[in-house]
Amino acid sequence: LVSAYGFYGWTMQLGTNQGYMPVQPIHYSHKIHAGDNQIDCNYCHSSARVSKHSGIPSLNVCMNCHKTIYEYNGEITEEYSKTFYDGEIQKLYKAVGWDDEAQEYTGVTYPVKWVRIHNLPDFAYFNHSQHVSVAGIECETCHGPVEEMEIMYQHSPLTMGWCINCHRETNVKVKDNEYYAKIHEELSKKYGVEQLTVAQMGGLECGKCHY
């Protein structure tokens, strides 16, 4: 019975990809950008506030800073040297067709084939804006300590059970949201509680994520 339960638990983890950490065509250190320089996640992943997807930022977003930041002057290690980081900036310049000496675009660009890290099944619907803008969920809740990641990886399992646990444990934030405030008031009386979880407001209904 124990072995059967263990096998069942193992099969439930198939395809979760937790810990997946692919090498990208251009090395991007979230530790340097989000950690050391404290760049807000939504500056690069701006679509997360208004869209289903957080999106991969255009290289033009990178160039907002790297038109003038052409070399790295921060902390280095044996594995990640100044030469290494400067080389990655040059890869960016080549991709967008930027001539650093002439300070102009050449018009010759090359596509960057980023490797996707977080990938949900087609039958599972997830909306970033609903969580980021409406619910006020911090990016780290799902993506982990991104500000410490030299190489980005999938921190959470992103399984159905993992999402359900969050909906059962997380209270709905109603501040500055009249729509939720009205529903919260009515359901609070029904359940006899002051704080409602996402589950108590319908967050476990199948149609919320599968339709």
What does this protein look like?
With 211 residues, the protein is an all-alpha fold. It has a domain at 159-210. The chain is 40% helix and 2% strand. It contains ten helices and two strands. It has a two-stranded antiparallel ribbon. α4 crosses α5 (82-96). The longest helix is centred in the middle third of the chain and has 15 residues, at 82-96. The mean pLDDT is 92.
Give me some keywords for this one.
40% helix; single chain; 10 helices; Multihaem_cyt_sf; mainly alpha; 2 strands; 211 residues; 2% strand; two-stranded antiparallel sheet
Mean pLDDT score: 92
Number of helices: 10
Largest sheet at a glance?
Answer: 2 strands, antiparallel
Low-confidence stretches: none
Bin the strand percentage.
under 5%
Distance between the termini: 36 Å
- Please state the overall shape, judged from the principal axes of the Cα atoms: elongated
Can you write the helix and strand succession as a string?
HHHHHEEHHHHH
Q: Look at the helices and sheets and give the structural class.
A: mainly alpha
Over the alpha carbons, how many angstroms does the gyration radius reach? 21 Å
Give the neighbour order of strands across the main sheet: 1-2
What helical percentage do the residues reach? 40-55%
Number of extended strands: 2
InterPro entries: Multihaem_cyt_sf
